[in-house]
Amino acid sequence: MAMESQMNINVCVEAENGGLHSKFDEDGRPKRTGTWMTGSAHIVTAVIGSGVLSLAWAMAQLGWIAGPIVLLIFSLITLFTSCLLTDCYRSPHPVHGTRNYTYMQIVKTNLGGVKYLVCGFAQYGNLIGISIGYIITASVSMVAIKRSQCFHKYGHDVGCHTSNNPFMIIFGIVEIVLSQIPNFHELSFLSILAAIMSFGYATIGIGLSIAKIAGGGNHVRTSLTGTTIGVDVTSSGKLWNTFQALGNIAFAYAFSTVIVEIQASKLMNSHDTLKSSPPENQAMKKAAFTGILITTTFYMSCGILGYAAFGNTAPGNFLTGFGFYEPFWLIDIESWSSKRWAKSDFVTKEHYISIPVFGIFRVNKFRVIWRILYVIVTTVIAMMLPFFNSILGLLGAASFWPLTVYFPVEMYISQAQMKRFSPSWVGLKLLSGLCLLVTLVAAAGSIQGIIAELKAYKPFQSVS
């Protein structure tokens, strides 16, 4: 309430001074200056993530025909539902309506409280899973560096197997330190750094694949249908791996949880989000098309060249390295707690500590304890279940239908007041139903993969 009051005061002052249009939008927030180009840059940053590392393996399960087709279908579905979601940014009218600043707020406005809670459960659960997945792959990345040094020193015939657990703990400690930075999600340079990293490791993966193909050496087997039954996998293994590959590709396109924040002002510096003219939904559709086109080009390159380089024996993680994800819902919970217990010094009081060179640092007891506990829990779970492809497949399956398809479709139907059983209504419902089926089989394949790996795995004893 205090923040809203201050915004209203700012608007009144600026209006009196004749400068309202220069500093504030109609909602009283700082005037946005972003364009479709900055929006597409944020989309590329959000989409190109750890999912790119599993695409060569996914392509190996599907083959030369189904692999590229499935990748293209997922990109088109994501683009279509993203456009539906952008039309719901303002309610009840996509151009003149009131702004909704988060994904969950849009769901609450258009679908009501029950589905709002379901959306929250799906979104928060997905972010917890992503945190676990990133810990797993970050540790594998660090182990890969150590193993490469071992291979260089002792030769490739030596196993050089190393436990993942110490590196998970190291990564967890780094997370604990970084998570204590106040307003971490508002550091604008993170988008630039993330974009460099996204393009960096995708380009490195493409370059390494081209180098491996050009270098010749051992012959790799590829086929139109992917891995061969009786040679590479069993018949049941082929089926489950195919399902799991769908989950891996779905995970690669999982960015719907932040598309609203890109369009609004939650995720990055508010001045860099889309300005009001032209209408945000028009600019965001153009940004989504550009961002997904660039992303799909990279994904196709990584998947196809990775499969050509490694063949049917493509590794689950063909690069072993990716960036950091800050779970933004942690900040949401902290904001809710500060309102719920506004008079509690433990929750709301900020302590200021002077650190040489770095200056004044704000510390809050609740924030410190809450974020440390979160990192510890996700790190322990990652140490218990360090299965890269299976975890990514399950995450992709869990997030694709509810967050990428179901809620955007249902909100668009509600906002457009679409008549039941009209051609458009039937078409959207059919799309949602088919995507639900894909999600279920992808989840089944990933869960089966986790179960199979657990049979031969001893907790806290993973090695690479």
From TrEMBL:
The lineage of its organism: Eukaryota, Viridiplantae, Streptophyta, Embryophyta, Tracheophyta. GO terms for molecular function: symporter activity. Belongs to the amino acid/polyamine transporter 2 family. Amino acid/auxin permease (AAAP) (TC 2.A.18.1) subfamily. The keyword Zinc does not apply. This is Amino acid permease 6. One of its GO terms (biological process) is auxin-activated signaling pathway. Its main location: membrane. It comes from Senna tora. The chain crosses the membrane at residues 39-59, 65-89, 124-145, 189-211, 287-310, 368-385, 391-409, 430-451.
